[in-house]
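re: ur msg from earlier - yeah i can do the zinc ion complex, just paste it... oh wait u already did. ok heres what im feeding in:
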Amino acid sequence: MSQPTQPAASAAAPDLRETDLFAFCRKGGSAAGDLAVRDLPRILAETAADAPASARDEVFHYTLTGFAHDEAAEPGAPATQRLYVDVTVTGQVWLDCQRCLGVYAEPIATDMRFEVVATEEAAEEASMEDDEVDVIVGSKKFSMLELMEDEVLLALPTAPKHVVCPTVHESLVTGADGEVEPEAPPEEEKRPSPFAALAGLKTKH
Ligand SMILES: [Zn+2]
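and the outut:
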């Protein structure tokens, strides 16, 4: 068996559970890789009970890109360094379709930019200044894993559905000539209703 070729692990690759997010952004760090669904308990909790066994072995692909931006609040004022991280996560989550109740794979593709600040107060201030950018409070042991799991959870539809359900409702079945068939075929009418059958049973006793 040939060894899979893997890029040499960079010394700068962050530990996704404990990243120094400030340093990552300041030095313009970047990382990419796979997240195993089995390491994401909250995604597992959302996964349909009837999902294929392989659902646990699936992965999300992620990219992280940190950068810093010097910004002067006012002309002539000393520049403030603002830190940002771009996060993308792609993959799929197995969900129950609300229309046909079958399981299906919902594609996930998130692409977010976060401003990284040091304190809750700074976060409030930053989101008041610019409500376009989502703000997170960074730390020296920041869990990028949890942030990415959050992003996948937020990307899940509130009403999960197949784009097109595999089983077509019988009222939509069309005849060979393309015309819609009558709702109840004539043969159906000859069958006794379940209530009539019940009534028959009762009189026999
Ligand atoms: Zn469906």
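cool cool. The chain is about 25% helix and 30% strand. ping me if u need the other ligands too
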